[in-house]
Every structure is written in structure tokens, then in C-alpha cells.
Design goal:
Elements (H helix, E strand, L loop, with lengths): L25 E7 L9 H5 L5 E10 L29 E6 L2 E7 L5 E10 L2 H23 L4 E9 L4 E7 L19 H12 L3 H29 L22 H19 L13 H34 L5
Helix pairs in contact: 3-4, 4-5, 4-6
């Protein structure tokens, strides 16, 4: 920093975890700053529909990490990858139909930051333009090099409205497991493995498929098999309706109805068949398709956990009734 330059001041704000959304779920923090003399409300700044300039910057990574902090910008030197740039080159450019992307590297000569200036009517549209132009190249580079290239963080600046948008993932809390004796049956091993697989993954397509397969395994195999054994052994199992818990929009809706209709036809068939309703191939890098599946992750996890909980209860009833597996 030069002597005549003013010292940059930083500030921080503590946000309760509950206000950031469910753990592990992707989100966007929107910051609305006020310019001197600007008499517009925050809502007016947010809802501006005029076409304007957006600056977008994306940090790539070798893997996904979840931080307890949300940085409201992408620091210089942040980002990493398995792709190297020549030592003598400080930057590179990729020209696409969405504009010219600026590629920068970190101190290890690894491609780390990608930026674009584009015109759009909202930050969502700007993100869509950014991803639609650059992800085909990232997909191809990953194929050619045989390495992962993940989107670690994305930042957007709307200078007209002094609006900033930064991506984040809600961190997981530390949990103390109750130290009591317990047991679970072998039939649940595969279901638990699917749940952990979903939690360990950062692909919303794959996470959804794991949660869906948990419900499919119970509805299509485990539950009919248990009920058949209970019927043959004349054991009464008291059933109850499984309803969506703790979801802001669909709480109380029957899970089986949701599973049979929306989850199966709108999401599972798309992922499994790799074909969209309009007949096109599913592009996993498409921004709007990615958002669509990101929005269903919480619902599918809540449903899978509730169905697993119910199935546990049915097995307990069967065993207390003297059932023989």
C-alpha cells in the first residue's frame, strides 16, 4: 500500500446459522449498499429490471470446502486447480458468445480465477450468462486433462445498484451423539450408505438421486416385504401417514404423493434418463437446471429421513409383536 493511499477498513457481521438456511445447502448472500444521494429503497435496488453491466468473478478449486465464514469478495490469489498456466504468462483470455473471459492464476501458476463483464437484467441472468459461456470449456478441460474442476465460489457486482452477490454453503454444526446402546438391522445398511453418500457429495443431481433411492428402496422393497411377513405371521403394524416435515412450502403434504408425482416424474426421470421433457439432453452445467435441482435437495432429504424414521418404527412394531424375519 502506498503512503498516500487511505487504509482500507473492513467490518464483519455475525449471522446465526439458522438464518443461513439448512446445513450443506447452497445459498447466495445479497448485500445492498447505499450510495450518497440515492433515495431508492433496498427493494427498488433489488428489483431493477433495466439491462445493465455486471462484473462476475469465479474461483475454481480442486475440491469443495465449507467455511464458517462468508467473504463478501474473492481475495486475490484465492482459488486453485490442477490446470497450470505457463510461468511467463500472467493471464489468458477465452472468447465466447457471451463475451471474453479473463483467466488468472495463483502463485503456484494454477488457473484460479475466471471473470467476465456482461450485460443483464438481474444477477440471476448474469450468472446464467457467465456459466453458459464458460462451463463448456471447463467441462472439456476436465475431460482432456482427466481432473476435477469445481466451482468454489462466485461473486457478482452490480455497480449501477451498488449490489453484491456472493455464493456460500451453510456450514454443518458439531453434533454430540447420544452414548446409548442401540441396534439396527442389516436391511438398513444400504440405505444409510446412500444417505452418507449424499452428504459427502456436492453434486445436487447425485444427492437428489441418493435421497430418492432411499425412498425407492423402502417403498418398493423393504416396506412391502415387511408388511407381507407381518400379515403371514398375524402381527399388527399400526401405520400412519408420512407427511413432509419442516419445509417452508410443502410442510404437511403426503410424502408418497410427492414421491409418486413430482419427485419421480419431474426429477428422477430427468436424471435417470438424461433426457428433458423437451427432448434435449440434460446439461449438468446448465445454470437454471442446476438451480432447479438445488431447490429440491432440502425437500428430498427431509422426505428420505422421514420415510426412514417411519420404517424404523414399523420394524420395531414387528419385532415387539414377536415377528420372525
Amino acid at each position: 500500500m502506498k503512503k498516500d493511499e487511505p487504509e482500507m477498513k473492513t467490518s464483519s457481521l455475525k449471522i446465526e446459522r439458522e438464518r443461513m438456511g439448512p446445513s450443506g445447502i447452497e445459498g447466495y448472500l445479497i448485500i445492498v449498499d447505499k450510495l450518497r444521494g440515492d433515495k431508492r429503497t433496498d427493494e427498488e435496488q433489488l428489483r431493477d429490471k433495466e439491462e445493465r453491466e455486471f462484473e462476475i468473478e469465479c474461483a475454481v478449486g480442486k475440491n469443495i470446502s465449507i467455511s464458517d465464514e462468508i467473504q463478501c469478495s474473492i481475495p486475490e490469489g484465492f482459488g486453485e486447480s490442477f490446470l497450470l498456466m505457463p510461468k511467463e504468462e500472467e493471464e489468458a483470455f477465452i472468447k465466447t458468445y457471451q463475451g471474453e473471459y479473463h483467466i488468472r492464476k495463483n502463485t503456484n501458476d494454477e488457473i484460479s480465477l475466471i471473470s467476465l463483464v456482461c450485460h443483464a437484467r438481474s444477477w440471476q441472468e448474469a450468472f446464467n450468462k457467465f456459466f453458459s459461456g464458460i462451463t463448456p470449456f471447463l467441462d472439456f478441460f476436465a475431460y482432456r486433462a482427466g481432473v476435477p474442476i469445481v466451482i468454489q465460489k462466485i461473486f457478482c457486482k452490480d455497480r449501477k445498484n451498488n449490489l453484491s452477490v456472493v455464493s456460500y454453503r451453510t456450514p454443518y454444526p458439531n453434533v454430540i451423539l447420544e452414548p446409548h446402546a442401540g441396534q439396527f438391522r442389516e436391511e438398513f445398511f444400504a440405505l444409510y450408505s446412500l444417505y452418507r453418500e449424499a452428504k459427502n457429495s456436492f453434486s445436487n443431481y447425485y444427492r437428489f438421486l441418493c435421497y430418492y433411492k432411499i425412498m425407492e428402496g423402502i417403498f418398493g422393497y423393504l416396506r412391502p416385504m415387511l408388511m407381507s411377513k407381518a400379515h403371514k405371521q398375524e402381527i399388527k403394524i399400526v401405520t400412519h401417514k408420512e407427511l413432509v416435515p419442516a419445509h417452508p412450502e410443502l410442510v404437511g403434504k403426503p410424502i408418497k404423493t410427492l414421491y409418486d408425482n413430482e419427485l419421480t416424474h419431474e426429477y428422477r426421470n430427468t436424471v435417470a434418463h438424461f433426457i428433458l421433457k423437451r427432448g434435449a439432453l440434460l446439461n449438468l452445467s446448465d445454470y437454471y437446471e442446476a438451480v432447479k435441482f438445488a431447490d429440491i435437495i432440502l425437500l428430498s432429504e427431509l422426505c428420505a429421513r422421514e420415510v426412514l424414521k417411519t420404517q424404523h418404527d414399523y420394524h420395531i412394531q414387528f419385532e415387539k409383536g414377536g415377528g420372525n424375519y
